[in-house]
Amino acid sequence: MFDLDKMFYRELKYIIYLVAFYVLGWGFTPYKPVFLGLAFGTCLSLFLLWTMVSKNRKLTKAAMEGTKMKSVGTLSRMATAALAVSVALQFPDALHLGSVIIGLMTIYFVIIIDFFIQHLRQK
After folding, report:
1. Which domain holds residue 85?
2. Is this structure's pTM higher than 0.85?
3. What angle do CA 30, 33, 37 make, to 5 degrees?
């Protein structure tokens, strides 16, 4: 069965390795705005994963108790994306906008890849 905590920590590890790679790219290549944008977007993407996991825990608890939950956090995820884009637009010399957007989507790619890897391991 699916264990949310194991999944979260596994994906957290993947994201930390990815951000470390981006920091190395920022430090050793001339594409500093691109790699800084990827690192910034991926860090915010990690925050989005953490909020999704915490909301899922609260939703599960509410379902077990038979109560209703007010929200699952869609507005906070949209606000985080808007914040990332506004920071990238505020500092165009330091952050590449396209890289920030790709970094924001990173966690969804990591979730999909992790799902397929775990599915193949179970077979």
Report:
1. 4-122
2. yes
3. 135
